[in-house]
Write a structure and sequence with these properties.
52% of the residues lie in helices and 11% in strands. It is α+β, with helices and mostly antiparallel strands and 225 residues long. Strands 4-3-2-1-5 form a five-stranded antiparallel sheet. A hairpin with a 5-residue loop joins β3 and β4. The relative contact order is 0.07.
Length: 225
């Protein structure tokens, strides 16, 4: 008797992982070569834009400072502050273009801003005066040499603007005294500016309201009885 061999089951072919891995490894340098020129071009455009914006902002700050007779030291301070902010924005954009992890970068920036925020919150008056100095530099309608009067019911705050510093507005009174008024407070109160040639400040900002005549009340009849 002849023995029958058991039927053989076909063997499944395993996927060739080594070939796919090699193909992916060969494709990575090609993709890297394709994306590298694009990143270099984008970074170059960012650098050129940064240089253009920095020069334009510095020229604008110098022009505004010259028109308002601001001291040269304050103009240089504002230029440095603007340049630092623009450079920080450039570094952030370049890091994103280079493929750094967005989560890691955002975590680092949030930590830095948290530390700075806590430090500035402890000295809130300093932060408010610095912010007010920027507003005064760009939007304050008065400049050095103008005669102004800050309306205050307790003190006479009138004189010539001698200097607009980082924290204070320096006012020279007619008696020769120097008043240092905080920047944050001068934005909260009305300020009177005298025209050229006028040397007298008004005593009151608004004229007194017209008084309505009071009509006599009718006499009540006597009740007898």
């Amino acid at each position: 008797m002849t023995r029958r061999n058991p039927p053989t089951t076909p063997t499944r072919q395993r996927p060739r992982r080594h070939q796919t891995t090699r193909t992916a490894a060969l494709d990575r340098p090609l993709q890297h070569r394709e994306t590298t020129p694009v990143k270099i071009l984008a970074i170059a455009i960012c650098i050129v834009t940064y240089l253009f914006v920095r020069s334009a902002s510095s020229a604008a700050i110098r022009r505004i400072g010259h028109s308002k007779n601001v001291s040269q030291s304050r103009v240089i301070y504002l230029e440095k502050t603007t340049n630092i902010a623009l450079f920080a924005a450039l570094v952030l954009v370049v890091c994103l273009l280079l493929g750094l992890g967005y989560g890691q970068l955002s975590l680092f920036l949030s930590s830095v801003f948290a530390v700075i925020g806590v430090a500035l919150f402890a000295q809130w008056s300093i932060l408010s005066n610095i912010t007010a100095s920027l507003v005064i530099f760009f939007g304050f309608p008065y400049r050095v040499g103008d005669l102004i009067k800050v309306t205050d019911s307790d003190f006479d705050l009138s004189g010539e603007v001698e200097e607009i510093s980082l924290f204070h507005v320096l006012i020279r009174t007619a008696q020769g005294n120097l008043i240092t008024y905080p920047n944050s407070l001068i934005l909260q109160k009305p300020v009177i500016k005298l025209d050229r040639g006028n040397r007298e400040f008004p005593q009151k900002i608004f004229p007194p309201a017209a008084q309505t005549p009071q009509l006599p009340l009718p006499a009540e009849p006597d009740r007898q009885g």
